[in-house]
Amino acid sequence: MQQQSAGGAAPGDALAGARPAQPMTETRTRSGMFGVRGTGDTSGYGGLRLPGWAPAPAERPFGGWFDEFADELGAALDERSIPRSAVEQVTIDRDELTLYVEPARLHEVARTLRDDPALRFEFCSGVSGVDYSAPDGAPVDRPLHVVYHLLSMTYRRRVRLEVALDIEHPHVASVVDVYPTADWHERETWDMYGVVFDGHPALTRILMPDDWDGHPQRKSYPLGGIPVEYKGAEIPPPDERRAYS
């Protein structure tokens, strides 16, 4: 349910603290690790139980410098005729701020954060992927996420940008022309998660061989069973290995 912020902001204006219509991801309890089932787990994580939890969308006042930042970003977006709906959600957890950005607007938002004099996030320190697909195959809306870590050396502030993508269409614009340091980071995210960064100058594998089939850090990627070329051996998946207890 959408809520009106205290300042009378339009519903869905995440920068004003109004909640979006839906959360970005569902929460669930995670049992075990690596998708292992049964008694053949030799990883030591078979009995692990972690509660499913995700922080709620933030509401005003955010606290600290976050309110000033949100106001400045909103004004910068308005000045560039970028709709505020480009920021789908604002989350603050453990004194860290994350902006969930509409994938089609990521490039514009990133350039705004870099160029606006009141923001000046000049440096992208990393790009990484996350696959929130459910191990049991339950449907998850836009489970493939890409996270961008930005630093303002001018104002000594850090924020995260995050976009959520469909597995069937994992495309988002490259930010290499905005942040050249993202070059190899985007290549690694493509290699491990299969995210296609449209406009990247050379989107090739960086960890796996060029002819490798699949993306190893996706939840759907098989565990083990990969031939070890120099010995001709094969490592079985964890649930097929010998149990020691």
Task: Tell me what the structure shows.
NDH-1 is composed of 14 different subunits. Subunits NuoB, C, D, E, F, and G constitute the peripheral sector of the complex. Its EC number is 7.1.1.-. Residues 1-38 are annotated as: Disordered. Residues 99-225 form the NADH:ubiquinone oxidoreductase 30kDa subunit domain. Residues 1-21 have a biased composition (Low complexity). There is one protein chain. This protein is α+β, with helices and mostly antiparallel strands and 245 residues long. The chain is built from three helices and eleven strands; from the N terminus they run E-E-H-E-E-H-E-E-E-E-H-E-E-E. A five-stranded mixed β-sheet has the order 3-4-7-6-5. Strands 1-2 form a two-stranded antiparallel sheet. The longest helix has 14 residues, at 66-79. The chain starts with 29 loop residues before the first strand and ends in a 10-residue tail after the last strand.
